[in-house]
Write a structure and sequence with these properties.
This protein is α/β, with parallel strands linked by helices. Helices cover 35% and strands 16% of the residues. The model has no long low-confidence stretch (mean pLDDT 91).
Length: 341
């Protein structure tokens, strides 16, 4: 019968000391907490990203007919991704009452608005352009008004909509065949629309003159400031939300930097407008954009700080002075109407 091995020959298992046991448990707890915090941060970032890019479109409540203007409904695709956009084409009126598309202004509304942008007074301003002899193409950016649902990207994708408007004016089937296509195109944008216009104009030289009202040199500093205000969240949530927007929706909010491209607009004329009482987009950004645009050796840049005007409210505050300055800018930049002779 075999003799059982002596206990002295079996491998000995070291006893875990109380301190080692405590350390092991602490590490395990730390890993669990880190995982929970990471999961919570990622989940909350994704949720806030969804809140940032999605919203209920503002319905249209009026048309140019309310201001006695002739117009046509139009639909055209955005450049690159083909999103179908809806808008209005409004012919300009010459002094003798004839209609014209010779000089057409593309107007680009602000965030969470529509082609009438009542917050900024866009429909009334469009009527002023029409009576000054400029045609107007105004449209709902993607996800806004009557255009198809799409992520709200604060000009990252909306710049494609502006480029689609240029393509439509120059080569699309326009609803006024007897008036032909525009000879020259200008652009007017407010807030998000101003950023979209600047970014589009940097890619499209056929936008011959640009008015940018309440534009931003970069959008990320504004978002980093505003995101924590949602539910009183800490500021460290902002980068997570912006990164989640890129991962989920393909929106690079850090890449929205009109201040980096405005110098490339030269020698085309650019007119920056900003409200002196803007607490959302600091009035100092007017100087940032102006200096950046003027850095080009052949720059043609104007700027106007409107005293007492809050964000995107310069037209409401300055009224006829605003119209006079902008119309004068376009008249000089785009020349006289060729069909007026």
């Amino acid at each position: 019968m075999a003799t059982p091995p002596s206990t002295s020959t079996l491998p000995q298992v070291a006893r875990e000391t109380p301190r080692a046991r405590l350390t092991r448990r602490a590490v395990a707890l730390l890993l669990i907490l880190t995982g929970l915090l990471t999961f919570s941060y990622t989940g909350l970032s994704a949720y806030l990203s969804m809140r940032l890019v999605a919203y209920q479109p503002l319905a249209l409540t009026t048309t140019p007919a309310a201001l006695g203007l002739d117009y046509r409904d139009v639909t055209f695709p955005a450049r690159e991704d083909g999103v179908k956009l809806r808008g209005w084409l409004i012919p300009g009126l010459l002094p003798d009452g004839r209609q014209t598309l010779d000089r057409t202004i593309i107007t680009v509304h602000g965030a969470r608005q529509n082609r009438t942008d009542p917050a900024a007074g866009l429909l009334d301003l469009s009527a002023a352009f029409v009576h000054a002899g400029f045609a107007v193409l105004t449209f709902d950016a993607r996800g806004h008004g009557e255009s198809p649902p799409a992520p709200f990207s604060l000009s990252y994708f909306e710049q494609r909509d502006v480029l689609g408007a240029v393509d439509f004016l120059l080569s699309g089937k326009l609803p006024y065949p007897s008036l032909g296509h525009p000879r020259v195109i200008g652009g007017w944008g407010v807030s998000m629309g101003a950023n979209s216009l600047l970014l589009a104009a940097a890619q499209e030289s056929r936008i011959a003159a640009i008015v940018a009202d309440s534009a931003y040199p970069a959008i990320s500093p504004i978002l980093e400031r505003e995101i924590p205000k949602v539910g009183g969240l800490p500021s460290f949530m902002s980068p997570g939300v912006l990164l989640a927007s890129r991962a989920i929706y393909g929106i690079d909010f850090y890449g929205i930097r009109p201040g980096d491209v405005v110098a490339s607009l030269a020698p085309r004329p650019v007119f920056f407008i900003q409200g002196g009482a803007d607490t959302f987009n600091p009035p100092s950004n007017l100087g940032v954009l102006t200096r950046a645009a003027q850095s080009a050796p052949n720059a043609n840049v104007q700027s106007w700080l409107v005293p007492g005007a809050a964000h995107a409210q310069a037209y409401h505050v300055a009224g006829q002075d605003y119209i006079n300055r902008v119309v004068s800018f376009y008249t000089t930049a785009l020349g006289p109407d060729a069909s007026a002779a």
